[in-house]
Amino acid sequence: MVSKESLTFFFAFLQKESGLVLDSSKTYLIEARLEPVALEAGLASIDALCHQLRLNPTSPLGRKVVDAMATNETSFFRDRVPFETVRKVVFPELLKTNQKAKKVRIWSAACATGQEPYSLAMLLSDTGVIPAGWDVEILATDLVERVLEKARSGNYSHYEIQRGLPTQYMTRFFDQVGSEWQIKPEVKKWVQFRRLNLLSDFASLGLFDIIFCRNILIYFDAASKKKVLDRMAASLAPNGALFLGGGETPLGISERLIRVEVDRGVYYKRNEATLSTSPPIQPQGLERGGNSVQKGQLQ
What we know:
Blueprint: H1 4-18, H2 27-40, H3 46-55, H4 60-69, H5 81-97, E1 103-108, H6 115-127, E2 135-142, H7 145-153, E3 155-157, H8 158-162, H9 167-173, E4 174-177, E5 180-183, H10 185-188, E6 191-195, E7 208-213, H11 222-235, E8 236-244, E9 257-262, E10 265-270, E11 287-288, E12 291-292
Parallel strand pairs: 1-2, 1-7, 2-6, 7-8
Antiparallel strand pairs: 3-5, 4-5, 9-10, 11-12
């Protein structure tokens, strides 16, 4: 059993470090997920783990606790409608508005094990609507380094592949290697992975034409939701589109986003009247495979 004092500490620690909001009804999660962390650190109990973090809250143990408690549920083309909205509505419009720059920037926030950004890459490759000479950049971020490592590998089990992936995509975009499926290099090379805490200031990433931040804000408190949504709005290009999860909305939380409904799809554009007129920070050099990003065309 975990003491009430330890539970109170972990609830506050996790909310501060990751935005995750838990209460006493989730005590079983604390016990199930943090006991292995304590044992790995050579500690006798979760209470002992709490004591160590109290003494040194910035130790590597802190990240291990956050990683262990993170919810990383995802699948290929999850909920499908947002992807169809990108394909049928948002991306064709971007080809018009971004004609001069010939560039589209996409951000998959809280990407977990990578199915979402890879789905976007496959979707755009499959549509065949990207003209020659255009640069498409997909940035994928997550707080948990463990899931990012899996995402970077591009290796998925048969169970993971079956969840949401159209059958024709299995052979077109994946190679079977033993019992696993490896995403092909021509898809993998277009996704850059980076560790990022959504509660931090991410203005240096620059502006994005499409942002997917889906099914993560449901775990945040109202203040953290507002902080993230306001910053997401500031990170949207003038014609950009933000996609949230089905149970997520900025209504009553942030006035910086405007709801757009198209067919069955919903996305959000930035509310120009509420945003600062100061020039945006230019994005820092992103890394892809250890090297700076090279411009090109999605094949």
